[in-house]
Amino acid sequence: MNHARLWADSFGAAARSVIADQETLTAGRADLDDRYIERLWISPGRISGIVTARNTGAELHTAITLPVLTADQLSAVRTASPQCEHHKADHNALPECLADPAHVGGVTVLPDPGELRFICTCATTSPCRHAAALAHALTERFLTHPEDFAVLRGLRQPQHPTQKLPVTGTRNDTKPKDSLSAHHAWAWYRACPDLPPVPDYSPSLSDEPPTLRAWSPPPPPAPGTGQLHALVLDAAAQARDFLRRGIPLECSWVEDAVRLSSRIPHTCIPDIADRLGLDVADLRNRIAAGRTSAKRQNTI
User: Fold this and answer.
1) Number of domains in the chain
2) C or N: which end of the chain has fewer Cβ atoms within 10 Å?
């Protein structure tokens, strides 16, 4: 038996055993034949690809995982049968004798269906047709590149942390092959628990008012230093409420003017009432109510 076909047939049989549903396998074969797998990547324990959904055209990220051999298992493979020619085999070869557990210290190199796992970002239950398409693609890949199966099992390391493999199929596609939307990149990241966590860039907000540096007040009729400080503190409070609780930053001519008048010292109440078209007494009552509400919130 050709050693490349051994590894391909063994992987294909294990994948079909897990997928089981014939309609899913047939649909995956049809997707692969129409070149619905654009890219493949291989790394120890994981092979993944980008599949285009047939109906929606959305990019789906699917992967098949298989546990790598443990350190003890790798040691047994490397030390068993020391006189065998497989120890001198070319890097691109995967000799058939490695499939015999008795020849490699009792280690099973061939895939166990119970260890295969299928992952896909589509909404259907896994294993889905997209995972089946990837399984078909890998079975064909191992026919010509058995060394990729050795990488998958951890027998060998790829030349790069993630090895990009050729496109599968013949469909003519004008879409750039290296483009990836942020939405699908994030979905793919969430499906990879072995990756480092995303950095947390959430702002650190303090309840303490900002420390205001001293500055020279602008010439009249501009607001004075105390009034400018009050404006800065009000803006900081509005921004903090927006970031913490999502309170909208809406501009209301009357409400903003009343709120600021209650917080800014030495405001000219008659002038503000005239600009707002309010009675002076009504404006004073609104300002008093605003100050009472602010004190109540500060005591909670």
Assistant:
1) 2
2) C
Give the domain range for residue 235: 225-299
pTM of the model: 0.53
pLDDT tens for 57-102 read: 788 888 999 988 888 888 888 888 777 766 666 556 677 888 888 8
Within-domain flag for 183 = yes
Distance CA 26, CA 69 (A): 31
Q: DSSP letters along 246-293, please?
A: -------HHHHHHHHHHHSTT--HHHHHHHHT--HHHHHHHHHHHHHH
- Is residue 222 classed exposed, middle or buried when 0-12, 13-18 and 19+ CB atoms within 10 A define those classes? exposed
Identify which of 65, 34, 24 has the alpha carbon closest to the alpha carbon of residue 47: 65
How deeply is 294 buried, as exposed, middle or buried, from its count of CB atoms within 10 A (0-12, 13-18, 19+)? middle
Half-sphere exposure of 110 (CA within 13 A, CB side): 23
Tell which residue, 263, 272, 258, 268, has the closest CA to residue 226.
263
229 and 127 in a common domain: no
